[in-house]
Amino acid sequence: MEQLNAKKATVGGDDQGNHQGDIPTFVTSFLEDPQAHLPRSRIFEYAAGRLIYSLEQPATGLYLVIEGKVTVCRSADNGRPVVVDIYQADDFFGESALLRFPHAQEQAVALEDTKVMMWPTAQLEKMVILRPQLAVALLQVLALRLLDFKSRLHSLASEPAPRRLVHTLIRFSERLGQTNEDGSVQMIPFTHKLLAQYVGTSREAITLFMNRFRREGYLDYSRKGNIVIHRAALAEWLRQPTAAHQGRTVAMAG
């Protein structure tokens, strides 16, 4: 069976390569690449806004983003969706299919026109038995993802909403942004609703915070509506001892 090309796709710009965030280079150098052990599979195309899988029709396999971006959400008890993450080219998603839960409470939506490759659960289970390195590679992907979720959980439990928003903007700029000549980073126009579902607060609070950061020169919007942030300035805002106090005085929505 023809293997996937192990070379990563370059999508967006200079900030696309490091999907592991703050994972040290010496760690990433030891990571296995799942694509090096996976055969090619069928490619599916989804227009922006289309469901890839849903609460009623859960994932039936593991997906790999070939082109575009995908938002994965979970439903909360209060009815408010929570954005698990946004995945782009070379990112895997849909791992909940490996549990074979009939109701995984998760859905995936194409954030823009997207192409994905999918391996059905039964096929993947057979492959990991025959290819132990594939199992190791997938475990490493999930372990890195777990580290990221632990960091987000700590932030959610200990930081006010404005600081969580800044962490989110910085993270999205590192993973999904493109660096401009002046050092600012341009990202696609995330809606305030999506940011609220990721940060864990209300859309109204996100609008308040984004307007405040725009007035203070930490971010702006391009002519096409893309978000342009000054990442170094936002990182410095986080380091200021008064930042947490300022965040609490703006709103207690978080």
Task: Write up what this structure looks like.
With 254 residues, this protein is an alpha+beta fold. It has two domains: 131 residues, Jelly Rolls, CATH 2.60.120; 92 residues, Orthogonal Bundle (Arc Repressor Mutant, subunit A). It has eight helices and twelve strands. A hairpin with a 5-residue loop joins strand 4 and strand 5. Helix 4 packs across helix 5 and helix 4 runs antiparallel to helix 7. The C terminus is likely disordered.
Task: Chart the SSEs and their pairings.
Layout: H1 25-28, E1 43-46, E2 51-53, E3 61-67, E4 70-75, E5 81-87, E6 92-93, E7 106-110, E8 114-120, H2 121-130, H3 132-158, H4 161-176, E9 178-179, E10 185-187, H5 192-199, H6 203-215, E11 219-221, E12 227-229, H7 231-239, H8 243-250
Antiparallel strand pairs: 1-8, 2-7, 3-6, 3-8, 4-5, 4-7, 9-10, 10-12, 11-12
Helix pairs in contact: 2-3, 4-5, 4-7, 5-6
Low-pLDDT runs of 5+ residues are 6-20, 247-254
How large is the radius of gyration?
19 Å
Order of helices and strands: HEEEEEEEEHHHEEHHEEHH
CATH class of the largest domain: Mainly Beta
Query: Counting H and I runs of at least 4 residues, what is the number of helices?
Result: 8
CATH fold field value of the largest domain: Jelly Rolls
Q: Largest beta sheet, briefly?
A: 4 strands, antiparallel
Tell me the strand percentage band: 15-25%
Describe the global form.
globular
Major beta sheet, strand line-up: 1-8-3-6
End-to-end C-alpha gap? 50 Å
The CATH superfamily of the largest domain is identified as: Jelly Rolls
